[in-house]
Amino acid sequence: MEVDGVVLSPDPRLRCECAEIDRITPEIVALAERMRRIMFEDGGCGLAAPQVGENLQMVLVDTTYTDATDYDPYVLINPVIVESSDVLVPYTEGCLSIPGITCEIMRPDRVVVEAYDLSGDLLRYEAARDLFCVCLQHEIDHIHGITMFERLSGPKRMRALKEYQEALARGARPGETA
């Protein structure tokens, strides 16, 4: 199911390992622009290609914008976490594909990510103990078929799934959190 161009859980497209992008084509640039528009319209700070129905390893992240004048998300193609801390910290996360709820997820407090940009340049992103760090990990999870639900223990997962079903029944839309 899709709402406002965003694939909603439990759509099977969110559970697939995504294909690497081997060339930056006009179609890839157009996909990045479509994702950029959807992410902004829904008030997200990150979005992965499978969330818009594309089985490709591309994510967008912008955790600092305040309005359209400073909105300029990073486009990460084939992102890989090359380093991560052993220290796990809780962070409350939402997801455009799982509207209406938030979940407390344990994640490494520091990561280093390598990815290509739309010019084909390999870039390195370092993040620690902030929303950017969490968002990188959350979006990279998406391109490997992992949603917030898979990061929760059994009882917490069951509670989150119930809350999500209730949120959908209330009409929750992408960008809405608890």
UniProtKB/TrEMBL annotation:
EC number: 3.5.1.88
Superkingdom assignment: Bacteria
Annotated InterPro entries: Peptide_deformylase (IPR023635), Peptide_deformylase_sf (IPR036821)
Cofactor note: Binds 1 Fe(2+) ion.
Keyword annotations from UniProtKB, A to Z: Hydrolase, Iron, Metal-binding, Protein biosynthesis
Reactions accelerated catalytically: N-terminal N-formyl-L-methionyl-[peptide] + H2O = N-terminal L-methionyl-[peptide] + formate
Active site: 139
GO molecular-function terms, A-Z: peptide deformylase activity
One Pfam family per UniProt: Pep_deformylase
Required cofactor(s): Fe(2+)
Keyword Ribosomal protein: no
Protein residues bound to Fe cation: 95, 138, 142
Enzyme type, top EC level: hydrolase
Function: Removes the formyl group from the N-terminal Met of newly synthesized proteins. Requires at least a dipeptide for an efficient rate of reaction. N-terminal L-methionine is a prerequisite for activity but the enzyme has broad specificity at other positions.
Family: Belongs to the polypeptide deformylase family.
UniProt-listed PANTHER family: PEPTIDE DEFORMYLASE
Name of the protein this chain belongs to: Peptide deformylase
The encoding gene: def
